[in-house]
Design a protein that fits this description.
The protein is an alpha/beta fold. It is built from 16 helices and 8 strands. An 8-stranded mixed sheet has the order 2-3-1-4-5-6-7-8, with helices on both faces. β5, α6 and β6 form a beta-alpha-beta unit. The longest helix has 24 residues. The chain is globular, with a radius of gyration of 22 Å. The two termini are 38 Å apart.
């Protein structure tokens, strides 16, 4: 048994089924598990802990079947032949076996409690993107051989965030299995020095700058205010009360946890800054950053007044429903995304350098320090990260020999900084959605959708139809 990736949710994929309206559609969502062994994750540097959450909440009325397939634990070795049960979902209500096509939704990082409690450190070694892609290829082959009429059906991989990276890499590594891929909000270049390490947090900052006057300046000034107030026991007590914390702050280390929690909050808001009410990570109003910024108009207030406003701002995120009696800094809204497994991957192959400087962003300066990061990884997992591995395996920016991949990115999404935002060739297409946050194009259609996302979806459908038609001519 090993940990793998839970799908990003039926909602996004079912949206695409509804939206495409292609003849004879069969939807497949590849599911697995993510391993969550215990570990003191708060010790990891902030930059290493950021991972692209990509799990949407599934629609309660989704019509799909849950199935299992025995997968090899290790596709690349021959010494042992153990298997695990890979979970996947099938929605076949639009399937026509005489003229069908298959959408294969590649999974994301996600939580499955049973596996979290039953995956040991030995099997964590198989928690890699390469093993996941091999899972996908073997599963597709099995399905085409066992589903009547599916043998020659063209397959398109679709995914968002980390799942978007897997979708793109699936097409790159297994072009004989999938005829094309839609990689939404996929930061395939957020590695090594392919993009500047400060890009991610500068985009977060720009989202706040555009959403309210002096909003980002207020957040920038809040760090100094927290540092000053947390320097005394009385100040720690005041902060605990002012932020309605479930557990009181008792040390400067606790204050550092508070700051990390606030950073996570601002980042999450940037990712889910959707133009309508949504509950991707938390129940939130339309354009939530604009609502948050209404409390952050005066960056020059005295420390305590400024931080009281910061509390009002984060309360929008964590308590929009008004049901929370206190705020828990040990649990962010991404706690259900299986980030423990993602942290292990960040400590092995998914090394994404990130930094802040307090000038081009609204955060305290923090350099990317690979040595410190590596030491933390070894302390937690007894592994050392390989920063060059992903560019070596998947090509970095040298991907022009590949074809039939759409890279869609939202202009408001901080992960777009590591994404493909310009056409590379005629068949490696970049679609930028200026008013889009994290994979907005994979969400269900909404009356509040901006014109840019409607245009993006239409263009995505157009390219997919071309791939399918071209594939059928080959047969």
């Amino acid at each position: 048994m090993r940990g793998r990736y839970k799908a990003g949710g039926a909602q996004a994929a079912l949206l695409i089924v509804t939206m495409l309206r292609l003849p004879g559609l069969l939807l497949l969502l590849s599911l697995g598990s993510v391993c969550c062994p215990p570990g003191a994750l708060s010790a990891l540097p902030l930059a290493s802990r950021r991972g692209p959450p990509g799990r949407a909440q599934p629609r309660p009325t989704a019509l799909y079947q849950t199935r299992y397939f025995p997968q090899k634990i290790d596709h690349f070795g021959f010494e042992q032949d153990l298997t695990f049960q890979q979970r996947y979902l099938v929605a076949d209500q639009h399937w026509r076996k005489d003229n069908g096509s298959i959408l294969f939704y590649t999974g994301n990082e996600g939580d499955i409690t049973w596996f979290c409690n039953n995956t040991d450190s030995k099997h964590l070694n198989y928690l890699t993107s390469e093993q996941a892609l091999a899972d996908f290829a073997i599963l597709v082959q099995h399905l085409k051989e066992t589903i009547p009429g599916a043998l020659n059906a063209p397959v398109i991989a679709i995914g968002g965030s980390y799942g978007g990276m897997l979708a793109a890499w699936f097409r790159m590594k297994y072009p004989h299995v999938v005829v094309g891929a839609l990689a939404a909000s996929a930061p395939i270049w957020q590695f090594e020095d392919l993009v500047p390490c400060g890009t991610f947090y500068s985009i977060v900052t720009n989202d706040f700058k555009k959403s309210g006057q002096c909003c980002s300046e207020s957040i920038l000034n809040s760090w100094g205010a927290i540092n000053r107030i947390s320097s005394t026991d009385e100040g720690l007590k005041w902060l605990s009360s002012a932020f309605h914390l479930c557990s009181p702050l008792k040390s400067k280390q606790d204050a550092a946890v508070l700051k990390a929690w606030l950073i996570e909050t601002w980042v999450n808001l940037a990712m889910v800054n959707y133009p309508y009410k949504a509950d991707f990570l938390q129940p939130l109003p339309a354009w939530p950053i604009q609502v948050v910024c209404k409390f952050l108009k005066n960056p020059k207030l005295p420390d305590k007044l400024l931080l009281q406003n910061v509390f009002q701002a984060v309360n929008v995120y964590y308590n929009y429903s008004g049901a929370a009696s206190c705020l828990n800094t040990s649990q962010s809204a991404t706690r259900n995304l299986g980030l423990t497994g993602w942290y292990y991957q960040a400590c092995t192959e998914m090394v994404m350098p990130m930094c802040t400087d307090g000038v081009n962003d609204m955060f305290e300066p923090r350099k990317w320090n690979f040595h410190v990061f590596s030491e933390e990884c070894f302390k937690l997992w007894k592994v050392r990260p390989r920063p060059s591995w992903i560019p070596s395996v998947y090509g970095g920016k040298n991907i022009s020999s590949h074809s039939n991949i759409i890279f869609s990115n939202g202009g408001l999404d901080p992960w777009s900084g590591g994404g493909v935002t310009r056409n590379i060739t005629d068949s490696l297409i970049a679609i930028v959605i200026p008013e889009g946050a994290h994979h907005l194009d994979l969400r269900a259609s909404n009356p509040g959708d901006p014109k840019s996302v409607l245009q993006a979806r239409a263009l995505e459908v157009q390219y997919m139809k071309q791939w399918i038609e071209k594939s059928r001519h080959k047969h």
